Amino acid sequence: MSGDQAPTLPFPAGWTREHLLDLESLTAEEITILLDTAQLFKDATDGCRKKLTLLSGKTCANLFFENSTRTRNSFSLAAKRLGADTVEFASSGSSVAKGETFVDTAKTIEAMGVDWVVNRHATPGTPHLLARELKCSVINAGDGPHEHPTQGLLDILTIRQRRPDLSKLTVALVGDIAHSRTARSNLWGLRKLGARVIVCGPSTLVSPRWEELGFEVAHHLDDILHRCDVLNLLRVQFERQVTRPFPSIHEYAALYAMTRKRMECSKSDILIMAPGPINRGVEIAPDVADGPQSVILEQVTNGIAVRMATLWLLAGAMARKQGEAI
Ligand code: CP
C-alpha cells in the first residue's frame, strides 16, 4: 500500500458513521478503528509523505470560519495524499460579508460537488447542524469550546505510539479546560480507551463538574506532576474569555507552565504534548517545548494520518449507504 497504486484495503466492519462530529458519542471500538487506520496510513506512506490514489475523484472542502494553521493544512494534505481534490473556503473575503448565511454558504460549496465538508466555527454545534442540512460527510474541525475530535485522536495516537497500553497511563490536561475543545475530545477519548485523566488548572478555568463526571480535578500542577505519564499543555484562550480568569500571565506561568525545574520533578520518561499553537513562556518554557521529551511536532505529523483515516472511513461508510463498492 505505497507509491501511486490504489491498494485494496479491507474496510473495517465496525465502522458505519458518515460524519465525525465528536468523540463523546463514539465507542471505544470506533476510536480504535480510527487510530488503527491512521497508523496503517502513516506506516504505508512513509510517515504521511507518499501519495495514494484511494480517494481520487473525490473533493474535500475546508469550510473554516476561524483561524487555523495545523488543522486546515493537514486536512488539505490528507486529502491530497489520498488522491482527492480540495476546496479552501475562508470566511474573510467570502460572500458571508454580503449577508449569506452559514447554511447557505455550506450548501453553495456542497453544490460544487464535494464529498466532505470540514468545518471550523466559533459556535458549538455548527458541524452537527451541517450534518443535518447537507448530503455529504461533515467533519468537525473545532466548534467553539465544544469538541475537536481529530485533535483528540491525533493526541491519543501520539501517546499510543510511545505507550501502547493506555490503561496503565495517567494523562493530565493542564490549563484552560473551560475554553478547550481539545480538552473535551481528549477527555472522552482517553477515558473510553482506559486511561486515567486529570484536569488541572486554576479553579476559574476548571469546573468542579468534571469531578462529578468521574475525572480527577487538580488545581496545583506541582501536586500531581510526579504521577503523570503524559502532560498535554493547553493554550490559555484569551480570545474566548469574557473576564480574565487569573491576575496576570506571570502568575499563571508560575503555577502551570512546564519548565525545566518541573521536568526535574517529573517521571524521567514523561511525554510533553501541546495541541498548539503554543505560547512559549506561558504554558510551556521554550527549552521544554524543544526538548527531548516533547512530541509536539510528532502530533502535527500524526494529524495528517488521523485525517487521512477519517476521510477514508467516512467515504467508505457513505459509499456503503449509497450501495456503491467501498
Ligand atoms: N491544534 C489546532 O487546532 O491548531 P490550529 O488552530 O492551528 O488548527
Description:
- The chain is α/β, with parallel strands linked by helices and 326 residues long.
- It has two domains: 28-148 and 301-321, Rossmann fold (3-Layer(aba) Sandwich); 150-298, 3-Layer(aba) Sandwich (Rossmann fold).
- The protein is built from twelve helices and nine strands.
- It has helices spanning 28-44, 70-81, 102-110, 126-133, 149-162, 181-192, 209-212, 221-224, 249-256, 260-264, 286-289, 296-321; strands spanning 59-64, 85-90, 116-121, 137-143, 170-174, 196-200, 216-218, 230-233, 271-273.
- The chain is globular, with a radius of gyration of 20 Å.
- The structure holds phosphoric acid mono(formamide)ester.
- Phosphoric acid mono(formamide)ester binds at residues 68-72, 142, 148, 151, 275-277.
Extended strand count: 9
Helix content: 25-40%
Could you report the average pLDDT, rounded to the nearest whole number?
94
- Going by helix content, strand content and strand pairing, the class is alpha/beta
By CATH reckoning, the class of the largest domain would read Alpha Beta
Radius of gyration: 20 Å
* CATH second-level architecture of the largest domain: 3-Layer(aba) Sandwich
List ligands, each type once. phosphoric acid mono(formamide)ester
Outline the biggest β-sheet. Answer: 5 strands, parallel
Question: Major sheet: order of its strands?
Answer: 7-6-5-8-9
Using the alpha-carbon principal axes, give the shape.
Answer: globular
Residue ranges: pLDDT <50 for 5 or more in a row? Answer: 1-6
For CATH, the homologous superfamily of the largest domain is named as Aspartate/ornithine carbamoyltransferase
Q: What order do the helices and strands follow?
A: HEHEHEHEHEHEHEHEHHEHH
